[in-house]
Amino acid sequence: MSMDRRGFLKTSLLGCSAAASPFLTPVSFAAAPWDARLVVIILRGAMDGLDAVQPWGAPEYAGYRPGMPRPGDASGPLDLGGFYAMHGALAPLKPMWDKGELGFVQAVSTPYRNKRSHFDGQDILEAGAMVNGQPVRDGWLNRMLQGVPGIEADTAYAVGRSDMLLMRGDAPVANWAPGSDIGGWSAQGMRLLEQVMHDDPLFRDALDEAELLSDADQADQDPETMTGGMMNMTEMSAPAKKAAPTGGHRAIARYAGERLRGDSRIAAFSLNGWDTHAGQKAALSRALGRLSDVIEDLKSSTGPVVWGKTAVVVMTEFGRTVRLNGTRGTDHGTGGAMILAGGALRGGRVAGKWPGLGEAELYNRRDLMPTADVREYAAWMMRDLFGLSRGALEGTIFPGLEMSANPKLIL
Q1: Alpha-carbon span 387 to 396, nearest angstrom
Q2: 47 in Cβ contact with 337 (< 8 Å)
Q3: Dihedrals φ, ψ of 336, to 5°?
Q4: What is the pTM of this model?
Q5: Per-residue model confidence as pLDDT tens digits over 225-271
Q6: Which residues face 311 on adjacent strands?
Q7: DSSP SS3 for 39
Q8: How far apart are CA 177 and CA 252, in angstroms?
Q9: Inter-residue contact 50 to 355 (CB < 8 Å)
Q10: Distance separating the N- and C-terminal Cα atoms of the chain
């Protein structure tokens, strides 16, 4: 087997430095700096975990959510073993559940409490740490990359138009978007627009739809005409054109999958449309349908070999209220759910400690009580995927985190 000079130097560097790195426990590298893949998807707007992963085994649930279809109803939720059922919009993913390639974690949250601001909650989720109550300035995925030898720009991709705090920091990260921002808006401008429109459901939903349509329209363009990113645009043409007819969210998923089939090992992007204050039944069905598309496209575009080495973690800034409000929606809450997927996953189960839905068991008598830190599950996944040391995870990547027993999410 031949090896070029660059490959020899990279392998030699890893061999000399990996053992000395405080970030890594002993591990064999099949590719620099590892062969496993990680995809992080941020759901902006706060997914209702009690609707995505429905606890029908809790006797109070039906009373809190009157009129919801039950497991066994046409287009209703799919039973996951008696206590939980997953939303019917996720039905295309049921074969993954059956194969152990899909799982959930219930009753998780960041340390953020009570203020219930999407923008603060998202910053804390992506920063992964706080100082004096404020999120730090770099993201936890980038801090992880900073401590690992052999990192290059192609190792990790931030995909989509969002300026992701999750990937911000000193480590090199490539960026790609299917098109320019709506009307030439910068990432900061879009964030301001989202803040201004947040409290008006009509304008907020219209903005979410416009962003999706913009992605879909821009994905039809030849990527050589686009701006931004750290990669040669001509290298993007094939995957982007292949994904173009399917819409913005699918273009992003398929592009990420194509990169993961090559030298890239990490991809991160976000999906909007999860703020369901009114008309949640239709809005959440649409959002979960898009997420289902994304996960299916990640699997198909990576291919069976790479998918078998891939873990997908889907996170959101907080949960939503247990009770429906007067407009058949839910308001900002606390405890929520994670969605996990991938061929590297030990799935087919709902992890996490269930807190109960009795009045006294709720957080502030309105929200699902968090029983675990969402960062802990992400940390254990990186520990088992990449061989990162527990000391680095608790001390540098997620400062202040205390990891309990390994939930063994990875094969």
Answers
A1: 15
A2: yes
A3: -140, -160
A4: 0.82
A5: 222 233 332 232 333 333 333 468 999 999 999 999 998 999 999 99
A6: 38
A7: strand
A8: 8
A9: no
A10: 29
